[in-house]
Amino acid sequence: MTPEYVMTLGRQAIEVTLMLAGPLLLVSLLIGLMVSIFQAATQINESTLSFIPKLVGIFTTLIIAGPWMLSVLTDYMKQMFSSIATMAG
């Protein structure tokens, strides 16, 4: 196994991780920003106010993007399992 191959595997793993976590983190960020703007406008200083909207937003995102996320993960795992023979020898 060459150093270039190891770097390629690491890069692919990071790409897949970012692709899977990106939508969830983006939704959480946007909902948190909207709740923060609402709290600043109404001067409500409750730290637990953003928890339920974020939870609903992430759950909705998982329902919508879940099949795509699952297919990306399974494709990556199939690629990793098929390349085990080249990694070993």
From TrEMBL:
GO cellular component: bacterial-type flagellum basal body; plasma membrane
Keyword Membrane: yes
Transmembrane among keywords: yes
Transmembrane segments: 16-39, 51-73
One Pfam family this sequence matches: Bac_export_3
Subcellular location: Cell membrane; Bacterial flagellum basal body
Example of a GO biological process term: protein secretion
Membrane topology: Multi-pass membrane protein
UniProt keyword list: Bacterial flagellum, Cell membrane, Cell projection, Cilium, Flagellum, Membrane, Transmembrane, Transmembrane helix
Family statement: Belongs to the FliQ/MopD/SpaQ family.
Entry function: Role in flagellar biosynthesis.
Protein name from the UniProt record: Flagellar biosynthetic protein FliQ
The organism of origin for this protein: Undibacterium jejuense
Gene designation: fliQ
